[in-house]
Specification:
10-stranded mixed sheet; 229 residues; 17 strands; 2 helices
């Protein structure tokens, strides 16, 4: 007897939802949904609107150098981070295990995103080594700094097709030792093993990016952090 398709899909969806909730058990919220308490950034660009952290640049108020909203709750080592994001125009990202370089400038690992979804999901190092893992790839940075693609985490076209343009998506970032994994909407987008002890980061800050260049709006909400052993 064939299982009816609709009940089967509902069961699968319910199972995925329960699994997602279980994964976030023990996570703490980093954003209160009302104001920027616990965060620090240039007030010319960052505010809270409709329950979301909102970064805006315009032709009249442009971002000349990448600027960041920095979480002031400490540093992160091994963790899982969930954040919903919505991007309209240009480029943004979530910094982790990064360095505060002063004047709201940040360098380090970034879960990238862009309006064209060319780079959304990649692992990029801001003010550092550049792209370390592209969408769909499993990469390793060798001790000599060479980046090598060592496998696949999925078809890039299928991964990008699951990313909703001009709508809300959810990033999940997992960092365990030198193993870093990015997911968007439940699909792994990029994975990295960083064996470059001289340049890798095992601890650092969290921050949200507003990119220089054309006008843009980026929103973040439901930001939750789970510390791992």
């Amino acid at each position: 007897m064939r299982t009816p398709m609709i009940p089967l899909l509902l069961a699968i969806g319910l199972s995925c939802a329960v699994g997602a909730l279980e994964a976030q058990e023990g996570a703490v919220s980093l954003f209160n949904g009302k104001d920027l308490a616990g965060w620090d950034g240039d007030p010319k660009f960052w505010t809270v609107k409709d329950g979301a952290i909102t970064g805006v640049s315009t032709a009249e108020n442009p971002v000349k150098t990448n600027t960041f909203l920095i979480w002031k709750g400490g540093t992160v080592k091994n963790f899982e981070l969930w954040a919903k994001f919505r991007l309209e125009g240009n480029n943004s990202g979530i910094q982790y295990r990064s360095k505060d370089l002063g004047e709201w400038r940040v360098g380090g690992y970034q879960a990238d995103m862009d309006a064209a979804n060319t780079y959304t999901g990649i692992l990029y190092e801001e003010r550092g080594r550049g792209i370390l893992a592209n969408v769909g790839t499993k990469s390793t940075v060798r001790p000599n700094g060479q980046v090598q693609v060592t496998g696949s985490v999925g078809d890039p076209a299928e991964i990008k097709a699951a990313i909703r343009k001009d709508d809300w998506n959810e990033y999940r970032i997992t960092a365990r030792g030198n193993h870093l994994v990015h997911e968007i909407n439940g699909k792994v987008t990029a994975e990295l093993i960083d064996d470059d002890e001289a340049k890798r980061a095992m601890e650092g800050i969290l921050a949200l990016q507003l990119h220089s260049g054309p006008p843009m709006t980026v929103r973040f909400k439901d930001i939750r952090l789970k510390v791992l052993p």
